[in-house]
Amino acid sequence: MNARDNDHITVHELRGFVGSDLQEAFNEAHALSRGTKCRQFLFSLSLSPPESANVPIDAFERAVDAVEQKVGLSGQPRAIIFHEKNGRRHAHCVWSRIDVTTMTAINLSHYKTKLREMSRSLYLEHGWKMPRGLVNSAERDPLNFTLAEWQKAKRLKHDLRTMKAAFQDAWAISDSAAAFAQALSARGYYLAQGDRRSFVAVDLQGEVFAIARWTGIKTKVVNQRLGNPDDYPSVEAISAKLTALLNDRLKILLEELQARHAGIAGSLEDARRQLVMDQRKERDGLARLHAERRTVEHAERVARLPTGLKGLWSRISGAYTKIKAINEEDARLGDTRDRQESQALIQRQVLQRRCLQNDIQRGRSSEAFELRRLHREISQCVLGGQQKEKLPPEMIERGRQRRQSMS
Description:
By secondary structure, this protein is of the alpha+beta class. The protein has 3 domains: 8-139, no CATH class; 147-242, no CATH class; 250-393. 61% of the residues lie in helices and 12% in strands. It has 14 helices and 9 strands. The chain is elongated. The two termini are 45 Å apart. The relative contact order is 0.08.
């Protein structure tokens, strides 16, 4: 329910709980679990379609139902929550694992394998391009990240994928310890000796990054390429060297670049907040319209049902049953209409948000390019001009044109 990191949050369904909101539902599940020995009493699932996919609500519901049956949680209390963030819509479903008839936790045997099979079938069903890591687990996306990595990037106000890509790229283009150190320095990170005989990188702010974690390479492989950690300076020594050798001019350039892009990012963030505010108002307005229309239509359906002697006769003649069936069908059609209107609004708003997110991504890419260029200059200052990494000619030309256009 974190509204700070999500543009829109919708509690779509609470099934099987006495509580009327999400917190009450989870408290209820926790209370039931106290009657068992189960500590992991909730099972959480995320459904995140491809970024460009427009998935209707009923497709999410069918997927949740299929997963529920596959892993053995059919009929268990559950909550479905929709999130929208960065122009992308995804869903979370949380089940209670406690079977109240036996007061035991349902065993979820081999659930990871079952979910992997479900993921493949959903990609095939919708005709989406399947990620290589889903086809073959050995080819998982190396830019996937852990909670700790995400929290660190958020604290530093950096784009996580850009940060992790810097380490991945530096490792990929180097074939020796010296080449890796220079490739890292060109990206603003400096190789150092970590604790417990490990390798880390230090940035200009003194933040420390574990090489094995951020490259996604096993520690043993990292050590084979980089050698003995004792041969490298400590984090404290590298930080002191950076402070001593980084001249005032480069510090000023770095601060100016960061300040300029912070201003651009701030303007885009203001635009995002305004867009989200407008979208929330529009959704609230549609929700009120639906509620008012449902009230009027319900009154019309009630008025169709005869009362008194006419009502008694209609029950005897069977007319009452026919009118009731018509009312039920009208109610179903009304629910379908409201859901379609809501889905159309959501899709339009997601597209609006996606366009703004493209502008945000372009700004981040521009910042990353200019920062990398500046980091190469800083690296030459810090490492005594031994920087050997070269950019492709077309990137150099784009950088020259960008500088001319800015001037």
